[in-house]
């Protein structure tokens, strides 16, 4: 294999246990196996890729992928997806709220700050990490149909998983006025841009790590899963279903 195209066409099935031709045109990305299980149960379809790095399920031209955690894996899945040139990729991630957010709130980011480093291998650091407007607009409309509100703003993406004890880092987060922090969004936006894949994100606030009592625990994470994950997933499915029905392109009218 001498070209990127040859590599990703071979590696996408290798990582997922799913043949290239079996992927839908619309992709949901997640870090959590239970999202894939819930999707599969909803549509009575098979979960593929058990024992592989990533698991998938496909129904109604939508494929959901659990790609794991962190920006390197986010970059990997967005590179692999160039094998199928999806019409839209929506990341359903969890994040830490940094401002007035409460657990269970939704954040629809308008940009991401590239603190993770991985995206620097794809684009110069001065290029902003932005979502596809058409996709975010559709997600916004889907949230409204559920009679829910959402926050908007920037999300800071980091490779650093354990930082809640670091007061100087928390002061930095206050200074840059980020709405949330996660480990994947900026990478998905930049690598999506590099691969000409329309992309967006809808983040679920799972903790408020700026204060000691808000740091995520196993018990608090179970409450998030019980109370909010179903709606998070439903909004993602409905957003991509609406795009598929409309038949409209998600790409910017002019894209370079």
UniProtKB/TrEMBL annotation:
Keyword DNA-binding attributed: no
Designated name of the protein: AMP nucleosidase
Alphabetized GO MF terms: AMP nucleosidase activity
Source species: Dyadobacter frigoris
Which keywords has UniProt assigned to this entry?
Answer: Glycosidase, Hydrolase
**Record-level GO BP terms:** nucleoside metabolic process
Residues annotated as signal peptide = none
Gene3D superfamilies with a match to the protein in the record: Nucleoside phosphorylase domain (3.40.50.1580)
**A Pfam family recorded for this sequence:** PNP_UDP_1
Q: Looking at the UniProt record for this protein, which Gene Ontology cellular component terms does it annotate, in alphabetical order?
A: cytosol
Its EC number is 3.2.2.4
Q: What class of enzyme is it?
A: hydrolase
Give residue ranges for domain Nucleoside phosphorylase. 27-232
Q: Which InterPro entries match?
A: AMN-like, AMN_phosphorylase, Nucleoside_phosphorylase_d, Nucleoside_phosphorylase_sf
NCBIfam families cross-referenced by the UniProt entry: AMN-like, PRK07115.1
């Amino acid at each position: 294999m001498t070209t990127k195209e040859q590599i990703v066409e071979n590696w996408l099935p290798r990582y997922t246990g799913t043949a290239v031709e079996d992927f839908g045109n619309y992709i949901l990305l997640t870090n959590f196996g239970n999202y894939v299980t819930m999707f599969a149960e909803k549509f009575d379809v098979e979960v593929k890729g058990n024992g592989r790095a990533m698991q998938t399920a496909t129904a109604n031209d939508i494929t959901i992928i659990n790609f794991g955690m962190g920006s390197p894996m986010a970059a990997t899945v967005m590179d692999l997806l160039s094998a199928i040139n999806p019409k839209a990729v929506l990341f359903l991630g969890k994040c830490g709220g940094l401002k007035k957010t409460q657990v269970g709130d939704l954040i629809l980011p308008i940009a991401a700050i590239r603190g993770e480093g991985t995206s620097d291998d794809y684009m110069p650091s001065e290029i902003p990490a932005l979502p596809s407007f058409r996709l975010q607009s559709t997600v916004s409309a889907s949230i409204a149909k559920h009679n829910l509100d959402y926050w908007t703003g920037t999300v800071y993406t980091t490779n650093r998983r354990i930082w809640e004890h670091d007061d100087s880092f928390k002061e930095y987060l206050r200074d840059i006025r980020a709405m949330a922090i996660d480990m994947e969004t900026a990478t998905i936006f930049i690598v999506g841009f590099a691969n000409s894949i329309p992309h967006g994100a809808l983040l679920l606030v799972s903790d408020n790590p700026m204060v000691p009592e808000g740091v995520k625990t196993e018990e608090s994470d179970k409450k998030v899963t019980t109370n909010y994950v179903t709606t998070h997933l439903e909004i993602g499915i409905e957003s991509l279903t609406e795009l598929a029905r409309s038949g409209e392109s998600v790409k910017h009218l002019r894209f370079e």
